[in-house]
Amino acid sequence: MEAKAGDISVPLAVLLKREMSNEKCEKPDLLYGEACQKKKGEDFTLLSADSERMQETSTESFSVFAIFDGHNGSAAAIYTKENLLENVLKAIPPKVSRDEWISALPRALVAGFVKTDKDFTAQARSSGTTVTLVIIDGWVVTVASVGDSCCILESAEGSIYVLSADHRLEVNKEEVERVTASGGEVARINIAGSAGIGPLRCWPGGLCLSRSIGDLDVGEYIVPVPHVKQVKLSNAGGRLVIASDGVWDALSHENALSCCRGLPAEAAATRIVKEAVKVKGLRDDTTCIVVDILPPEKVSPPVKKPGKVGIKYIFRRKSSDTLSEDHIDRGCSEPDVVEEIFEDGSAMLSERLSTDCMTSIIFEPYNCAVCQLEMKPGEGISIHGTTFKSTGIKRPWDGPFLCVPCQEKKEAMEGKNCS
Ligand SMILES: [Zn+2]
């Protein structure tokens, strides 16, 4: 049996076989490595292939990889490295099923980022950090990002997906509008009479980024609300490259992937950093983590078909590869499809902490949705309480709820404290 390219319907027998093969290779093997060349010593990384969570009756493991690129000192980067993951995990109630855990992650990531920022800025006014945090659970990859470090995925078939957002003011018009509307001034450096020099920056302070953890001295409209993207890889796997701007200022996504093709993860990370420094010199901390997500027991890096490389921003892509009996019977190598499960980059907490009914039942209804403080019914402030002012509709009875300090943090982030 052979289905022609372009056929839409997939025979039931094929779907069943796919399901069975999915079960057969439930967990991928991960091989990973990192490399770094320091200039300022403000880049930090986190690599853990066996973080644990309690699930219903058992303990399950998942993997975490992160880059923190600090600025104006490394206090924020170090604090975030030490506290962020715990704050995210605390936002998910214990003993939920794996599916519930995965669907709760996007909201928990927002809560964890905001709590980490709130706690850090309570003790330090200056210094900030970008964060690119990658959580891998089975074939599901979840990336939360603030700032301009970047995570890309090359699927086993050779398509490139960008999994993080770019929060440089220079390239992000939406963020320029948000910062300006919240009371920040966005402009280039101006030297008497000349046109603006260099990239767009936020004033006072001159930060090129619109989102980070820390940076209280720059302004509260520099928010820690992460862009979150969650995808599921086919069980053919793929390669993740997570790197700080020292790499991306020198190399395109394609060049970073092609310069290390065929090398194992550790050597690949070293090659990417070496290549970046060769192109631009060591002008900034240059840090890279490579993670190969492989079908179990397949130890060599995924083989790429040449000539198929292209950056994919649009998900739910259907493979036009011919689906043959051969593909199906090998079980663990169905045609490459990266499926988008979730994506949201809004800076508005009222949007990011609200979840659909199915997901919201996972969370404690009266706990503060950011810091998880336990509150009594009626004590918290509804996240919708002030959101619908313009339309005159208020939903003060409607959760999720915030404690008073977290509500104040929310108002500050939305620029409501400057009037
Ligand atoms: Zn709170």
From TrEMBL:
PROSITE patterns xref list: PPM_2
Coiled coil (residue ranges): none
Catalytic activity: O-phospho-L-threonyl-[protein] + H2O = L-threonyl-[protein] + phosphate; O-phospho-L-seryl-[protein] + H2O = L-seryl-[protein] + phosphate
Pfam families: PP2C
Principal EC category: hydrolase
UniProt record similarity statement: Belongs to the PP2C family.
Protein name (Swiss-Prot/TrEMBL): protein-serine/threonine phosphatase
Organism the protein comes from: Carex littledalei
Lineage: Eukaryota, Viridiplantae, Streptophyta, Embryophyta, Tracheophyta
